[in-house]
Amino acid sequence: MTEAFLSQDEVDALLDGMPGADSGPGADSAVRTVDLACQDQVVRSPMPVLELAHERFARHLASAMSGLVGRKPVVGAAPARIRQYSEVMREIATPAHFNLMQLEPLRGSALLVCEPQLVCAVVDTLFGGAGRPHVRAEDREFSATEVHIGRRIVDLACEAYRKAWAGTHPLTLEFVRSEAQPRFIGIAGATDLMVSAKFDIEIGNSGGALHLCIPQATLEPIRPMLASTQPGDARAPDRRWIARLSRQLEAAEVEVVAELGRARATVADLAALTTGDFIELDLDPTLQATVDGVPVLSCRYGISNGRYAIKVQSFLTIDPDNPNGVPHVER
Fold first, then answer.
1. Residue 308 half-sphere exposure, CB side, CA atoms within 13 Å?
2. pTM of the model
3. In the chain, how many domains are there?
């Protein structure tokens, strides 16, 4: 048996000489076990761009619903939270107006939930009430009228969501289908993490909440943008920059090409040509002058100062339905 390189006494002496070293009981009291496979321990960085978009969404939704109920509702946006899907569903009373939404252009679905109190408050207001439901909304299924009103609220929310993201990222919500029970809409597993936001809506003496739930995995492609501290925003165009760019474009040199005519021939005809033979061209009375293959001018050919030339008849503008150009007569 080989002899140990260091004896136990020597090892203890080395440990005693190290600062902060403690081999006694309780030395590992500050050690914390981390399970890398547990989603609850994922770093949850703040998303200021998402919070800003939710504030805009609340303002646009209040403006849109005022046209529906005939009065200005108060819409408040609670901070977005990252929680498990099962925890989010436990906070929502059923039956409710569960709407499966497609979050374009991202891959994945979202869940937009109208609480029964909100739907009943809107229905009561539309029929002349003060917005206060007379029965417990969670004790019964939705009527046909309430289902229709719930869909109207969803449509208004989709338009408000589009406006909220218009200056930052083109995110839109597209309705897929609606259900009264969450078990019929499974957008995630029970332990999957969701980014949930609650929007409290007060209408008269009552109201309810609108819940927006998006799987965290769906937002991963744009997470760097959401975590940015300088979100982009749509601003008015810089007129000075546009004028300077226009002047520089006007000074750019381009090559104008005008094709006078074309001729068709077979390979045998070309092989039979000799010096002095003529090739007849199919000449049109007008021709197009192009820049990099794009038609820009309608012209006639002729001679000017003893040189072949083309005379501009009109300018051509590009039309998506007519790639060859549409006459825009200015000269």
1. 4
2. 0.56
3. 2
